[in-house]
Amino acid sequence: MALLAPPPPKLKPFQFPSLHRFNPLKITHKQQNSIHFASNARFPQNSLKDSIFFRRKDAKIIRVSPIVRAASIPLSGDDKDSNFGRILLSDVVVKRKRNVFWGRKWNSLDIGIVSVVAAMHLLCVLAPSTFNWGALGVAVALYVITGLLGITLSFHRNLSHRSFKLPKWLEYFFAYCGSLALQGNPIEWVSTHRFHHQFCDSEKDPHSPIEGFWFSHMSWFFDSENITQRCGEPTNVGDLEKQPFYKFLQNTYIFHHVALGALLYAMGGLPFIVWGMGVRTVWVYHITWLVNSACHVWGKQVWNTGDLSRNNWWVAVLAFGEGWHNNHHAFEYSARHGLEWWQIDMTWYAIRALEALGLATDVKLPTPAQKQKMKALNYNNVSSKFLKQSSKPYISIAKPKYVTDRFKPLKIREMSAANARSLKDPPKDDAKIKRVWPKDEKDSTFGRIKVSGVEVKEKRNVFWGRKWNSFDILVASGLAALHLLCVLAPSTFKWDAFGVAVALYFITGLLGITLSFHRNLSHRSFKIPKWLEYFFAYCGTLALQGHPIKWVSLHRYHHQFVDSEIDPHSPIWGFWFSHMSWLFDTENIAQKCRKRSNVKDLEKQAFYKSLEKTYLLHHVALGALLYAMGAFPYIVWGIGVRIVWLYHITWLVNSACHIWGKQTWNTGDLSRNNWYSAMT
C-alpha cells in the first residue's frame, strides 16, 4: 500500500540567495521576527552593503561585519558576562552550558533512548573478544548501507533538502536503510535537521556548540522535549507525513531493529550482534554527531554563512563527505558538499552514479553566480582579529600554481607569469585541451577512443610480432593466474575472506600505492619519519605492482614525458596499451626511457635495494600466512580478488584518467579529472 501512495507535491528548484540561513524552508515573516532577524534589504544598500543585521530582544539593531563569529551572535542583552569560555582549540564561545542529565524530569522516551545508546556502547566492550573477519565484514557493509545510503544520501540530502529526486521505490528503500541506523525515523530526523538550518547557532538551534561541545555532540539527543520547547511542534515535514510509508516507519520503528538483530544472530551468533549492531551503530552515531559538533567548532570557514559551520576534512572522510559543512550551509540545497575537486565527497559520488544510471534527476548544484553572491572569504580559521578587517569581499579564483617540470621530475619550478594569468580564465568544463601533433601525422591516426576526444596515433600490440623474454612471460603468467583465481571467488565466498580482502585493499592500495609509492616516494609531496616511510613502502610492495624503485621510476618517467612518444603508458597508443598491455613489454620501457637514472634517492637506501632483491619472497610469505589463517578462500580473496581489483583501479588512472573526464587546468597533456576513478 505504501508504494501506491500519491507522490508529494513538486518542489520548485531552490534558488540559492546570497544569505539564506534564516529562511531555508520558506519561513514566514512571522517566524523570521521570532528569531529577531532583520534583513539588510531594509537598509540603504550604499552605506550598509555586505552587512548582516540581528534584531535583539531590546529592539536594538546591531550591525555585524561580514565575517561573523560565534562571539558576535547575541543571545541576550547581558550575554557579555555570561560566557563559559571557549571550546578547546577553537574560538567558539560557550554562552550557556546545558546539562540534560540533572535538574529535570525524565520521560519514558528519553529513558528508552539513553538505555539503547548505553547498550550499544556496552556491546562495543565485547568487540575484541568476539572479533572475526565475517563480523567485521558485516559491520563495514552495514556502515555503508545505513551511513552512506541511509543517513547522508537519503535522510540528509534527499529528504531534508530535496537536493535531487529518485523514483519512489528507490527513495523508500534508501529511507529504510537510514531507519536501520538507529538515529530515529525519517520524519523525526528530517524535522530536527530542518529546524537546525532554520535556527542555526541561535538559542533555538536543537544542537549548537554555543551551549557546550558535548551538548551539540550527543546530550541534546536525550531530551526529546527540548526541541519542542525551542522550535515548536514539527510542522516542517508535511511532505513526509502525508506519505503512508513514512508514517508506517514512524509507527513500527523499533520492530525493524529487533528483526535486524534476530537476522544477524541467526547468521553469525553473538559476534554478528556485537559488530553488526553495537560497533557499527556506535560508529555511525559518532560520525553523524561530529557533523553537529566538530563541524561547528573546528575547521575552515570559506563562505560567509553567518553561523559557526566549518569545513572539516577529517569529518568529511569519516562521514562520506558531510564534513564540508560550511559549503553545505552556504548552499543547503546542493547535492554536492565537496565543491572542490580535492574535497572527497563519497555521497556525491553515489549521487553521480545514480544520475548516470538515470535514477537521480533534478540534481541541484550552485551556479557560479550563486557562489559569487555568497562572497568566498580569503581566510583560513575563524578568529576575532578578522572583525577589524575591511568588509570588502575577496574572491579567490585561482591560486598560484606550481607544477612539476617535465624533464626534471623532482625539481619544482614556478609557472610563468603569463601562464599564471591565464588561470584567471579557466576553460569551461566541456572544453577539450587537444595535444598538438606535427602536420605530417595528421593522417596517421587510428580513430578516436570511444566517447572521448583522444586520437590513437598508432596501435601498439605487445603480444604478437616480437620475441618475448623470460621476465615478460613471468609477468603475463602471474597476471593470468590472478585473474583465473577470481573465477573461484563466488564458490569460495566467506565473510571473513571478504573482510581480509577489504583490509588488505586499504593497506596495500591506500597506504601502499597512493600514499607511499605515489605521493610520498614519487613526488615527495610530504615527509614522514623513516620508519613510517619504510612501513608504508612495504605495504605498497605487497600490492604486487613492483618494488618501490621500479614503480617510482616508471611514474617519474610518465610525468617527465607525459603523453609523448616516450611516455611508458599513454593512450595515444590505444586504450588497452595504456591500461595494462604496456606491462608485458619491459624492453619497450628500456628503449624509450633508456637507463633508469631518476631514482637515485631510493637506490642509495639499503631498505629499497633489499626490497628489490627479495621482492617475490614477501608475496610467497603473505600467501603462506593467508593460507594458514583461512585456507583456500583466503588465497582467492586476499590474493586473487584483492590484487586484481587493485590492479585495475591503479591502471584506470593511467588509461581512463587520460581519456574521459574534465580538464580544468591547461597542462598541455591528456590528463583529466575523473570522478569514478577518484572514488575507487
Characterise this structure.
With 680 residues, the chain is mainly α. Helices cover 48% and strands 2% of the residues. It contains 26 helices and four strands. Strand 3 (402-404) and strand 4 (412-414) form a beta hairpin. Helix 4 (133-160) crosses helix 6, helix 17 crosses helix 25 and helix 18 (495-522) crosses helix 20.
State the helicity in percent bands: 40-55%
Molecular shape: globular
What's the gyration radius in Å?
28 Å
Mean pLDDT: 77
Low-confidence stretches: 1-82, 376-445
Number of domains: 3
- What's the number of extended β-strand segments? 4
Query: Biggest sheet: strands side by side, in what order?
Result: 1-2
Percent range for β-strand residues: under 5%
State the major sheet: 2 strands, antiparallel
Helical element count? 26
The succession of helices and strands, N to C, reads HHEEHHHHHHHHHHHHHEEHHHHHHHHHHH
The helix-and-strand class reads mainly alpha
Topology of this structure?
Blueprint lengths: L28 H6 L10 H4 L3 E4 L5 E4 L43 H18 L7 H28 L7 H12 L6 H13 L14 H5 L6 H8 L6 H4 L2 H8 L1 H40 L20 H6 L6 H6 L15 H11 L11 H7 L27 E3 L7 E3 L2 H6 L47 H18 L7 H28 L7 H12 L6 H13 L14 H5 L6 H8 L6 H4 L2 H8 L1 H40 L20 H5 L1
Helix pairs in contact: 3-11, 4-5, 4-6, 4-11, 4-14, 4-18, 17-25, 18-19, 18-20, 18-25
